[in-house]
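thread: overnight batch results

M.L. [08:02]
morning all. the overnight job finished for the chain we discussed friday. pasting input first so we're all looking at the same thing
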Amino acid sequence: MKPEVSKRFFIFLDFLSATVAWALFFYFRKTYIEEAPFEVNERFYQGLIIIPLFWLAVYFVLGTYQDFKRLYLMKVLALTFKAAIIGSITLFLFVLLDDEVQSHTSYYKLLIMLFSLHVGITLVHRLIITFNMVRRVHARKWGFPTLLIGGSQKAVEVYDEINQLPKGIGTDFTGFVNLNGIDKELSGKLEHIGHVDQLEDILDQYQIEEVIIALDSSERERLKQLISRIQGRDIRIKIIPDMFDLVRGSFKMNNIFGALLVEVNDEIMPYWQFVVKRVMDVAISFIALVVLLPVYLVLMIVVRKSSPGPIFFRQERIGKNNRPFQIIKFRTMYVGAEKKGPQLSSTDDPRITSSGKFMRKTRLDELPQFWNVLMGEMSLVGPRPERQFYIDQIAAIEPQFLQLTKVKPGITSWGQVKFGYAENVDEMLQRMKYDLLYLKNMSIALDLKILLYTVLIVLKGTGK
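M.L. [08:03]
and the structure it wrote out:
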């Protein structure tokens, strides 16, 4: 069974298990707690639809279906018990607490039975499917397309170590790219698919999911550049730790049976916070598009009268995982402002219309981007999206800039609040520091603070 088919089957059985568990709990609740005859009524049927959907929502928020191919038995057990605790307490508080019972001990019985039935029934299919998936990975029938970076003897050692493991760890080598020379022994074992200069194209062409960098972590500058070039994509990165890293505990390693490799990917934010962030994005953007409709109409008239040309300005920007999208703004410049090629605006830029200066200062030109947020191309808060033209220039100076494409770009950002619009590449690099700091400290609380400061900038008109 293919991974995607297994995932759909897994979700279907989650729904079915939750349905069966609730039906049995309903019977227990009526017969043993309320001591009433069991009736198949409208409320019973409603519960069979609503309650399982509630459980699926809990699983989704906890990230159960995220990165499904990498599930393992201990993780499934932990996720199931965590979901059962959260879900059971929530249902108890909002559905069961108003039940009329003979004694308070009946509430304990209800909660324990709800938890036990749900865990007991749900775990059966979850463990069977996960065990089968793990077995296929260990048998090397399933794996993740993996690129090996390096063409030296070090790369040969890594390749041999992984292939000589008694059990597969999910590494399915697609090929290798070299940095300098190519070891003949390695080229005889693994296909050479290009040079590291072609890295980005190779990652996309072969749909790589994992990258192993066969360099000592003592080669820090080279490692830093390679990691920065990859981190903007949804790809796991593994490197070889040196003794200094092992002693000081710089990295974490979870697979005790695998090769001596460590992941360098940072977990930006817990998955449930990403879900909450997306819910906030959709809710606030929808409300803003409706409530601010009179403002939109006024600004449309202002832009139309400011100079000949379209009301809205569209431009290709680079979003999450380097995916291009069309950003939407109110036009603040005269038509043909970039006849000589891409140019950043400045404080006294003659290309900006008189109304455009006001809109840029108050950030009103960004209001149409609520539509980008609603469509999932942007977020309310995140690093500002740039054009590929400038990304190439900045990345050539500071490769860490590419890390900013790990998350959705935002209407506003820490860099935008602290620094404002950048007038040149040097200022873009200064603003990048704030956005990288945001990336390392992402949280819902920080997003709310940035949104608050952005609102203050709009009201005061103090933006740069």
